[in-house]
Amino acid sequence: MLVPQCSKPTANKTMNGRLSGPPVSIGMGGKQMFRRISSALDTVYKIGAAASGALLVLLCCLVLYSISSRMFGFFAGGATDVAGYVMATSTFLALAYTFRTQGHIRVALLIQNFHGHQRRIIEILCLAVMSVVMAFLAFYMYRLVYDSWDFGERSEGADAILIWIPQLPVAIGAFLLAVSVLHSLIQAIFDYDAINPETSEHEGPSEV
């Protein structure tokens, strides 16, 4: 008599044949919902990156305006200070998109010695620590903006602008970065193949 055999859970294989460890199942419906949320969040990060690019164009215009004021002898009206605010805002708004597209340089001197399930565990631990750090940064950026608004602080430059105005988009960029790191952490737990750095899709000069 034939006895049915229960199949043992097997580890997932990455594109290069290495094992990535047993998956954490959240069900077909849950996975589809998670992927829709993930796609919506990626769209938000892209909007931040587009805004960052537009601000770089504005920064270029402000620098040219400031140079022209020196050449032709007219008052620039705090253009240099505003250029600094624009540069900071542009940097922070692009961080989330850059992180999600693996544009940041990864120093993989230690982690490159691990593969498959071991590397997945280390990736999850690293993302968990980074999530805490980024949440800390986002929270205190919010506190900085709130305190500046509460005390009515103004910049010390010629523009004398309320300082919470340029601080607010920087705090938004820090918040988006914290969300993107948490986003990647959840993907590493439930859908690791989407962010697996060992696959050919994710390998590149961003990992050294």
Annotation keywords:
elongated, mainly alpha, two-stranded antiparallel sheet, 208 residues, disordered N terminus
What would your notes on this structure say?
The chain is mostly helical and 208 residues long. The protein has one domain. It has helices spanning 28-72, 79-100, 116-151, 164-190, and strands at 12-13, 19-21. The protein has a two-stranded antiparallel ribbon with strand order 1-2. A hairpin with a 5-residue loop joins strand 1 and strand 2 (19-21). The longest helix has 45 residues, at 28-72. The model is unreliable at 1-23 (pLDDT under 50).
Rg over alpha carbons: 23 Å
What is the count of DSSP helices, taking H or I runs of 4+ residues? 4
Residue runs with pLDDT of under 50 for 5 or more positions: 1-23
Assess the beta-strand content as a share of residues.
under 5%
Specify the helix fraction band: 55-70%
Question: How are the strands of the biggest sheet laid out side by side?
Answer: 1-2
Helix-strand sequence? EEHHHH
The shape is elongated
Overall mean confidence score, pLDDT? 82
Structural classification: mainly alpha
What's the β-strand tally? 2
- How many discrete structural domains? 1
